[in-house]
C-alpha cells in the first residue's frame, strides 16, 4: 500500500467496533490468531468498510442499496494517494478539483479525496438511482459545497455530456468496469470464493455490484479506449487524465492509442494491496509551457 494509506498496519477492530458496535458480531479470530471478518460475507464486508469510513475519515453516513458495489476502502484510498503524488509532482496543491467518472451510489472517491486532501469534486454516473443515493451521502455529510454530481445521459459516453466548456480539472479518475458480461463477473467471483475456501454453489459477490458497475460491452479494454478517445476531445480542460487498469496486457495498446491522440506525457504507476496488483495510467495533452502555466 501507499505510505500515506491509513490502513498500512491492518485493521484496528477495537477502534472499528467502538464506532460501529454491530461489526463485533462479524469479527472472529483466524488460525493465525488474528482478528478478521468473513470476506465472503457481503454484509460483513459492507459493515467493515462503513466502520473504516467512520473511524478514519469522519464519514458518518454511508448508506446505499446492497445491490450496489461496496468498494474496499484501503484500495480506493491508495488511488487517491497516487493521484496526490502526481499533482504534487506537477506543483498542483491548492484548490484542487477532480473529475470522478462513474462515482456509483457509494460516492467513494470524492469522500476520500475530500477527507484526505480537501479536494473538490465533480462526480458523474449514468445510473439515476446511484446518483440519488450519492446525493444523500453528500448531503448528510455536509459536503454539498465540495462535491457536485452530474448525470451521464448516454451510457456509451464518458466525458461527452459531462465536461462543459468552462470546466477545468486538475485530474480525472476512474475505476473501469472489469468484465465483458455478467457470466464473466460471476466466474471471477467463483475463483475468489475458491481462494477463500468457500462453497461456490450459490455465488454472491462479496462486494456486490450492479451491471453498469461491473461490466461493459467489450470489457475493460473497450471502456478504456472510449475513455482515451473522449479525453482527447477535451485536451486543455484537464491536466492529468487517469484511470485504474486491472489487466496489465491493456497497457501497450493504451500507449499506442495515446500517442496517436497526441498525448504529451504518459505514466504508469504500479499499485498493490496484498496479493492484488493493479496500476494507474495517467496522461496529459498539455505542452510543457501549458503545464507550467496551469498552476500560476
Topology (elements, then pairings):
Elements: H1 13-19, E1 27-29, E2 35-37, H2 42-57, H3 73-89, E3 97-101, H4 108-117, E4 120-125, H5 128-140, E5 147-151, E6 169-174, H6 182-195, H7 211-214, H8 219-231, E7 238-245, H9 251-261, E8 265-273, E9 276-284, H10 288-294
Parallel strand pairs: 3-4, 3-6, 4-5, 6-7
Antiparallel strand pairs: 1-2, 7-9, 8-9
Helix pairs in contact: 1-2, 3-4, 8-9
Throw out a few tags for this protein.
single chain; 296 residues; alpha/beta; Rossmann fold; two-stranded antiparallel sheet; globular
Folded structure, characterized:
The structure is a single chain. By secondary structure, the chain is of the alpha/beta class. The protein has a single domain, classed as Rossmann fold (3-Layer(aba) Sandwich). It is 38% helix and 18% strand. It contains ten helices and nine strands. β4 (120-125), α5 and β5 form a beta-alpha-beta unit. α1 crosses α2 (42-57), α3 (73-89) packs across α4 and α8 (219-231) packs parallel to α9 (251-261). The longest helix is centred in the N-terminal third of the chain and has 17 residues, at 73-89. The protein is globular, with a radius of gyration of 19 Å. The two termini are 32 Å apart.
Form type = globular
CATH superfamily: Vaccinia Virus protein VP39
Helix content: 25-40%
- The neighbouring-strand order within the major sheet is 5-4-3-6-7-9-8
Beta-strand portion reads 15-25%
- The run of helices and strands is HEEHHEHEHEEHHHEHEEH
CATH class: Alpha Beta
Counting DSSP H or I runs of 4 or more residues, the number of helices is 10
Let me know the number of strands. 9
Amino acid at each position: 500500500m501507499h505510505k500515506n494509506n491509513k490502513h498500512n498496519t491492518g485493521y484496528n477492530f477495537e477502534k472499528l467496533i467502538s464506532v460501529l458496535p454491530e461489526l463485533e458480531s462479524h469479527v472472529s479470530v483466524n488460525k493465525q490468531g488474528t482478528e478478521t471478518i468473513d470476506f465472503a460475507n457481503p454484509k460483513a464486508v459492507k459493515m467493515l468498510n462503513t466502520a473504516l469510513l467512520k473511524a478514519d475519515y469522519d464519514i458518518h453516513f454511508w448508506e446505499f442499496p446492497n445491490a450496489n458495489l461496496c468498494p474496499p476502502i484501503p484500495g480506493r484510498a491508495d488511488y487517491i494517494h497516487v493521484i496526490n503524488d502526481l499533482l504534487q509532482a506537477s506543483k498542483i496543491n491548492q484548490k484542487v478539483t477532480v473529475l470522478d467518472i462513474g462515482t456509483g451510489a457509494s460516492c467513494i472517491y470524492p469522500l476520500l479525496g475530500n477527507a484526505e486532501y480537501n479536494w473538490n469534486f465533480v462526480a458523474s454516473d449514468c445510473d439515476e438511482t446511484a446518483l440519488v443515493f450519492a446525493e444523500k451521502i453528500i448531503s448528510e455529510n455536509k459536503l454539498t459545497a465540495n462535491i457536485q454530481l452530474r448525470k451521464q445521459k448516454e451510457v456509451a459516453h464518458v466525458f461527452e455530456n459531462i465536461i462543459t466548456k468552462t470546466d477545468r480539472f486538475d485530474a480525472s479518475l476512474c475505476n473501469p468496469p472489469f468484465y465483458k458480461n455478467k457470466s464473466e463477473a460471476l466466474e471471477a467471483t467463483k475463483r475468489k470464493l475458491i481462494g477463500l475456501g468457500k462453497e461456490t454453489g450459490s455465488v454472491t459477490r462479496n462486494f456486490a455490484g450492479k451491471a453498469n458497475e461491473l461490466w461493459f460491452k467489450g470489457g475493460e479494454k473497450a471502456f478504456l479506449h472510449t475513455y482515451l478517445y473522449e479525453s482527447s476531445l477535451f485536451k486543455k480542460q484537464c491536466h492529468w487524465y487517469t484511470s485504474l487498469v486491472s489487466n496489465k496486457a491493456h497497457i501497450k495498446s493504451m500507449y499506442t492509442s495515446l500517442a496517436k491522440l497526441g498525448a504529451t506525457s504518459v505514466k504508469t504507476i504500479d499499485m498493490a494491496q496484498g496479493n492484488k496488483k493493479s496500476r494507474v495510467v495517467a496522461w496529459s495533452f498539455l505542452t510543457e509551457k501549458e503545464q507550467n502555466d496551469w498552476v500560476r
